[in-house]
Amino acid sequence: MNAQHRIAQLLPLCLAAFLLAGCGKSAPTHFYSLSTGQTAPEREAAPARAPCFSLGVGPVDFPAYLDRSQVVVRQGGNQMHVADFEQWVEPLQENFKRVLLENLEGSLCASPLVLHPWPVGVRPDYQVALQVLRFDGAPGQSAQLRASWSILDSRGELLVWKSSTLQESVAGPGYDALAAAQSRLVNRLSQEIAQAFAGLKKK
After folding, report:
1. What's the Cα-to-Cα distance from 20 to each of 27, 32, 85, 100, 193, rounded to whole Å?
2. What are the distances in angstroms from CA 87 to CA 31, 37, 70, 100, 138?
3. Domains defined along the chain, listed by start
4. Is the pLDDT of residue 87 over 80?
């Protein structure tokens, strides 16, 4: 068999491989992030002599099924769907903690606000610890957040323990609308925590 004949036989195979590679190209990945509340209540400026109190947020425990970059959605019953091409731009647990802290910063007279583990030399006056049990939803339907949380003083004494079950409607069929609904859930949770602090100040 001469070289020209071999080349003629290989050309169709190379063309087929090229076409298959093109057909197998994956869909583009979309990235999402939780956002802070846009309507957080304005607070009065703290006296210049000192802040009201320092606050630490964490630890925040998350369920193992959310320990992934992909967005997880419910499909009814016991079925879950992991959306390979719809992903969080950062670990969801870290995103959740940061947004919760930023929301609390807009609702409480507290400074500094720090995330667990605390920076060296910082011992907050109060600590908010959370255990998130559920944080998911479905595009075009609803998003849910269920969490237990507590407020502790600087000695670790339990001052408040509560459980929150929250739900938000998803305004559209896309994953961006789902992320927006989940952001509203975090904002509502921060408002519940801020109200608990207001109750402490009245005691």
Report:
1. 15, 31, 21, 46, 55
2. 5, 21, 4, 20, 14
3. 51-202 (3.40.50.10610)
4. yes
